[in-house]
Design brief:
With about 350 residues, the chain is mostly beta strands. The chain has helices at about 15-30, 340-350, and strands spanning about 50-60, 70-80, 85-90, 95-115, 120, 125-135, 140-155, 165-175, 180-190, 195-205, 210-215, 220-225, 230-245, 255-275, 285-305, 320, 325-335. A hairpin with a 6-residue loop joins strand 14 and strand 15. The relative contact order is 0.18.
């Protein structure tokens, strides 16, 4: 471990900060013509606004020699804003359609951690702005393309963020009424570093009560229908991020690295149970509780000239595991206009009729 310069935590954090940020972003989204730190969820391909809060209580670092704790809470907003009407037509007995959208994300995270010589209560911000296009073809099969830019910075560096690329492609192959296969790729920081990851999965609906869906390597969901709009979901998912973090003497970095900033890398997995109500209605609510595990945080130097793109991670200045802890996640989702997915399904049924 590279020596560190001690620094005391003296900052005051208002608990309303992340909520103010999310409220401002919500106002920005609602002014439009009418989505990871985390999961790739096909439901988020629809025009919608989703606001999610996640809280994990204080828990000790895994190293028994470290007498310290880690806590985090965050508020995230994700919006798919339709840019004009849906376009759908029948072509030789098949379907062809498209829907352009603006994908907007915003979030704020509060952390508290006390590591040797690093005792901080930082506030971290992340954002995303993508141009997205949802295409539909026969069966119907879906093709979702989203390209743009993102950032993730601590409050002291957010005024001069390092922009990075954001890219996602997902396609579906509708094999039968019970089976749909999912494939694609994503440039993501969900594992704490910039990686170009393949995405493969499926949606299996054996009957009207149960459905199993998931995309490797991001998450899985087993859904049980309890009522017309109420579902019980059993979930497994991963989340993570890479933040720019101000280095004002806290870290002694090696030669050939930036001395004004380091990267904070966090990642963890979650297993939980979620109750979802209001699916298909103007507003739906989701409440999820479970266990966060396989948790890790690290600070690494930024090698000069290698601070963007797909990266090789140098030796960490600090790298510590965090003990498992319970978590609570609450979400509200509001549709924003018509969905090409629903219209294509309805039109496919009409085309299939003799």
């Amino acid at each position: 471990m590279i020596p560190l310069t001690p620094r005391a935590s003296t900052r005051f954090r208002s608990p309303l900060g992340p909520f103010v940020l999310a409220a401002a972003a919500a106002l920005l989204c609602s002014a439009g013509p009418a989505r990871a730190q985390g999961e790739v969820d096909l439901r988020l391909l629809r025009p919608s606004l989703t606001i999610t809060g996640l809280g994990v209580p204080k828990e000790s670092f895994s190293d028994s020699e470290i007498d310290g704790e880690y806590r985090s809470s965050n508020l995230q907003l994700l919006a798919n804003i339709p840019l004009g009407p849906t376009h759908l037509r029948t072509d030789g007995g098949g379907l062809l359609g498209w829907q352009p959208m603006l994908t907007l994300g915003a979030g704020a995270t509060d952390q508290t951690f006390d590591l040797p010589a690093v005792d901080r209560e930082p506030r971290l911000y992340n954002g995303l702005l993508n141009a997205s296009l949802l295409l539909v073809s026969s069966k119907p099969n879906l093709h979702y393309i989203s390209l743009g830019a993102s950032f993730a910075e601590e409050e002291d560096t957010v005024s001069n963020p390092d922009l990075r690329g954001s890219a996602l492609y997902l396609g579906t192959y509708h094999k039968s009424p019970a089976w749909t296969f999912v494939y694609g790729g994503v440039y993501s920081f969900v594992y704490g570093r910039g990686l170009l990851l393949p995405a493969f999965g499926f949606i299996w609906t054996p009957n009207q009560t149960w459905a199993l869906s998931g995309i490797l390597p991001f998450g899985w969901r087993l859904s049980q229908k309890l009522g017309e709009t109420t579902f019980l979901n059993y979930v497994l998912w991963v989340s993570g991020q890479r933040y720019g973090f101000e280095n004002d003497g806290t870290f002694t970095v090696p030669a050939g690295s930036r001395d004004d900033k380091v990267y904070e890398r966090v990642r963890e997995q979650h297993v939980g149970v979620e109750i979802e109500t209001g699916r298909g209605r103007p507003v739906s609510f989701l409440a999820q509780a479970g266990l966060a595990f396989a948790r890790n945080m690290a600070f690494t130097p930024i090698e000069t000239g290698h601070d963007k793109g797909i990266e090789s991670v140098p030796d960490a200045l600090v790298a510590e595991g965090i003990d498992p802890a319970p978590y609570l996640r609450l979400s509200v989702r509001v549709p924003l206009g018509k969905s090409l997915i629903d219209e294509a399904r309805a039109r496919a049924k009409e085309v299939a009729q003799p």
